[in-house]
TrEMBL record:
<dbReference type="InterPro" id="IPR001789">
    <property type="entry name" value="Sig_transdc_resp-reg_receiver"/>
</dbReference>
<feature type="modified residue" description="4-aspartylphosphate">
    <location>
        <position position="57"/>
    </location>
</feature>
<dbReference type="InterPro" id="IPR050595">
    <property type="entry name" value="Bact_response_regulator"/>
</dbReference>
<protein>
    <submittedName>
        <fullName>Response regulator</fullName>
    </submittedName>
</protein>
<feature type="domain" description="Response regulatory">
    <location>
        <begin position="7"/>
        <end position="126"/>
    </location>
</feature>
<dbReference type="Pfam" id="PF00072">
    <property type="entry name" value="Response_reg"/>
</dbReference>
<feature type="region of interest" description="Disordered">
    <location>
        <begin position="137"/>
        <end position="171"/>
    </location>
</feature>
<dbReference type="InterPro" id="IPR011006">
    <property type="entry name" value="CheY-like_superfamily"/>
</dbReference>
<feature type="compositionally biased region" description="Basic and acidic residues">
    <location>
        <begin position="141"/>
        <end position="161"/>
    </location>
</feature>
<keyword id="KW-0597">Phosphoprotein</keyword>
Length: 171
């Protein structure tokens, strides 16, 4: 992987966290790192630069990471709706993780940050990108983590591809 060509945006209100992630990225050869202290500034950076991958903190003021990702994915004037987003947080509650996932986050990274964690998430969004889906209430990466080739039952959706109710399996 040639990391030197990547353009990465860090959106975090904690300057020390931005410095830590920048140093980790530079250690693997990333040369283009852009920073923003909140979601609004992050959206502005996206308008000014062609960003490949975004790391954003969940808890920021005035615009938090979830709202930032919602606007990135859904605003009509969004500069890069399909940029992979890695959500960084020390607040891993099921409700917040679900809200971030439903906003369109690709990956999660828990604090305290480690070089291994940053590099693994970066590699995951590059080497195993998830397809994007659009529904009436969601636009973002497919929330299913894997396709099970052994699964032989009915479709795992409420409706099939034609919009009809999915068949139920008889037992």
């Amino acid at each position: 992987m040639r990391y030197d060509t990547l353009k990465i945006l860090l959106v975090d209100d904690n300057q020390h966290a931005r410095i830590l992630v920048t140093e980790i990225l530079r250690s693997i050869g990333v040369q283009h790192v852009f920073e923003a202290a909140d979601g609004s500034a992050g959206l502005q950076q996206l308008r000014e630069h062609q960003i490949d991958i975004i790391f954003t903190d969940l808890s920021m003021q005035p615009m938090d990471g979830i709202e930032f990702v919602r606007r990135l994915r859904n605003a009509p004037d969004s500069p890069n709706q399909m940029a992979p987003v890695i959500m960084v947080t020390g607040h891993f509650t099921l409700a917040r993780v679900s809200a971030a996932r439903d906003a369109g986050v690709n990956e999660f990274l828990a604090k305290p940050l480690t070089a291994r964690g940053v590099i693994e998430r970066l590699q995951r969004v590059i080497e195993h990108p998830r397809p994007f889906v659009r529904t009436a209430g969601y636009f973002g990466p497919d929330r299913r983590r894997r396709d099970d080739p052994e699964y032989r039952g009915p479709m795992r959706r409420k409706t099939d591809a034609a919009g009809r109710p999915a068949p139920t399996q008889e037992i």
